[in-house]
Amino acid sequence: MTTLAHEHDAASHDNHGEHGHAEHHGPRGILNWLTTTDHKIIGLSYTVTSVIMLVLGGALAEVIRGQLANPNGHLVSFSEYNQLFTMHGSIMIYLFAGPFAFGALANIIVPIQIGAPDMAFPRLNALSYWLYLSGAITMLLGFFTSEGAANFGWVAYTPLSDAVQAPGYGTDLWIGGLILTGFSAIFTGVNICATVFYLRAPGMTLFRMPIFTWNLLVVSILILLAFPVLTAGLVMLYADRHFGTHIYSVAGGGVPVLWQHIFWFWGHPEVYILALPFFGMVTEIIPVFSKKPVFGYKGMVFATITIAALSLGVWAHHMFTTGVVLLPFFSIMSLLIAVPTGIKLFNWIGTMWRGQIWFSTAMLMAIGFVVTFLIGGLTGVYLASPPLDFFTHDTYFVVAHFHSVVMALVLGGMAGLYYWGPKITGYLLNERIGKVQFWLLFIGTQLFTIPQYWLGLDGMPRRMAIYPNNPEWQNANTWSSVGALMIGVSTLLFVINIVVSWKKHPAGDNPWDGHTLEWFTTSPPPHHNFYRLPQIRSERPTWDHNHPEAKALGHGKDHQ
Amino acid sequence: MELTSLPPKGSSVKNRLARIAAVLAVPGAGLVLSGCTVPSFYASEGVTETSKSTFHLWQGFSIAAAIIGAFTSGLILWAVLRYRRKGDAIPKQTQYHIPLEILYTIIPIIIVIGLFVATVVVENKVVADPPTTTEIHANAFQWGWGFTYTDHNAVTVGSTTEEPTMVMPVDTDVRVILTSTDVVHGFYVKEFNFSRFALPGVTNKFTFHAVKTGTFAGQCTQMCGLYHSIMYFKVKVVSQSDYSKWLASFDTPEGKAKADAAKKVLAEQMSAHVPVKPEASGGTNKQ
């Protein structure tokens, strides 16, 4: 078998040997963590930090659901409630989902999947992480100011976020934190683009890149197009608050709705910046656990590019009810996104079709993702139609829709952690706890969102600390809260699983019979990732190396 | 290792898809044929002309979503149950099936175009602005609503402690002119299947043609600050004669006094929340 492999990367060749990590002579412990430019350690820092943010944002969500379990909940005051949902949304979107999607697993896996020794700009990569961490701390410090954290919703519509309506320092810290994490994202985008374009191993052509890497490349381009707009918008908001400009204020001749345009011009590509990496994760996992190549590889790439292109022209579907946007254009653009997304869905099903499906925790989470995303996707089609959006906008229907989508992403993220965790740490997670976690998470998610769809259709607006004393509404809200509690318990189980499985079950290099390059190297990979590389003749070099007799069948070959 | 094709010969993907499609087509066709008993899919049927059109659009979208959802989740369920691991044999490494891939690109495009056409037809009805002399000015402020009537003395105003009522006649085109004095609010009436932002600096207009009398709940839907949760109003649709009587009640001396008092309250509410003056927005970092 090894005859097919050839030595590669002569630069660090001399230090190789039986010492493994010892080859890298650098500082150890905390000093190593502070000064490292190794993409794997930075990626791990991203992973740990963003999962802490997930737990934190989840804790706020549990308080919100506790308050709403009763129509006249007294758990928190109106003012505290407004801070809670603002910071829940902000933490989950800005500090968990984004950084986890393009900073955590992407940072670790993308360079390895293309056979690179590190990211193209390792120091810039470190800067990205430190900007992210300091931005996150900055935003969270708002809780410790006298007027509390930001309280105008995560979308911060002006004038509610101006100096008169939101005078507190919590708002300034929120804006400052976002500017920092915004730069962090932009630098990561630059880095991933450069890495994918310049550091691919010999033989790794663009159309031999794994779909996960493809998606991250497209996401990075989207980041470069969208994040500077948000960052500029935030700087203008800050200037309005403190330097006397009138960009968003009516009295000074400004236009409040401009903020909504700027925000959503970032905000809708952001939805796909968040989603595409998770699409990529399950596109890696489903083929491996079905023992088949990804079905319609080229169609998958095409679908990713189409989604990204369309996502730049749909922002005003968040603004149908403002009465100041061209409805049909944004409607057709939004509806069309269903087409490439549908292609992806059918490709995932096609990959499982006639496979040999191994229901590991990672695979269960990936299937849970597909089902939950199907629900979130179908309900999203309604919202692309302006007349239907008119009566569901800002109701719980929308809340339920995007929570179906983001909970699908959480399932996908968990799939990624169970799948790549052993590669990163060298140890497997406990499968039995994993499966209990999956069922709690999956059932909890549906129990949490489905009552909310009904609540929205029955007229319950979002962001309400209390609601009319209607037994049916209370019932639905209670079920939703039970679902949220199950999700919380499942997250706790994940943490318990890490503790229980700590250094217990060594994973070996390739525990899942993986397809891509990361499964060719050791677990965890050495300092510069590879001692040797296999021949790269398809998007499955490791599989081709291990199963030379079972290459993927090309176009038009033998489909009866 | 041996390459095996697991399913029995003859049951190609195409055949199976056709079979599943046939199974699904029966309830689908049933739904369409029994037109008058199409379920509501939990939405409100509506009490205005346009809200009824919107409701029918909702039903159409829901039928499409139900069929696509049942078909797709059926495929997922089948794949998961049928193709569970049964050994170590490596399945056939199929990667492409171009006709199938084209099929599931084209069909969604056709569905999307259908949904879009239906959307535009209904949307044009909903955003139409037919000529009418019955005009209500709805003013949103933190945290309440004030309603005044073009060419009439009538006025209703209320905040968090007392819900204001927007009175309007049935079987008449009623234009609502919506503005906000401070932040973004949302004007939402569930039974009208409609909501619209009240944006500072923007005047939004829309028309209702109620076909049923009654009192309907309305509420602010867009987060607008501390008391957003309790920014309610009511819409009372009355007969045309009751509407005229109600308008006239503000023309008597005591009615006028009542209207003047209400107008004063509304003016106070609005002046308390006038948009930020240039000199007031210098913020805390003055040099």
Key attributes of the depicted protein:
heterodimer, A: 560 residues, mainly alpha, Cytochrome C Oxidase, Chain A, two-stranded antiparallel sheet, 16 helices, globular, disordered N terminus, B: 287 residues, alpha/beta, Immunoglobulin-like, five-stranded mixed β-sheet, 5 helices, 12 strands, 39% helix
Amount of helix of chain A: 55-70%
The best one-word shape of chain A is globular
What structural category characterises the helix and strand content of chain B? alpha/beta
Briefly note the CATH topology name of the largest domain in chain B: Immunoglobulin-like
| Helix and strand element order of chain A | EHHHHHHHHHHHHHEHHEEH
**What is the end-to-end distance of chain A?**
32 Å
Distance between the amino and carboxyl termini of chain B: 79 Å
What characterizes the major β-sheet of chain B? 5 strands, mixed
Helix/strand order of chain B, N-terminal first: EHHEHEEEEEEEEEEHH
Report on the biggest sheet of chain A. 2 strands, antiparallel
Helix content of chain B: 25-40%
Global outline of chain B: elongated
Quaternary assembly:
heterodimer
Count of runs of 4 or more consecutive helical residues of chain B: 5
Computed CA radius of gyration of chain B, to the nearest angstrom:
28 Å
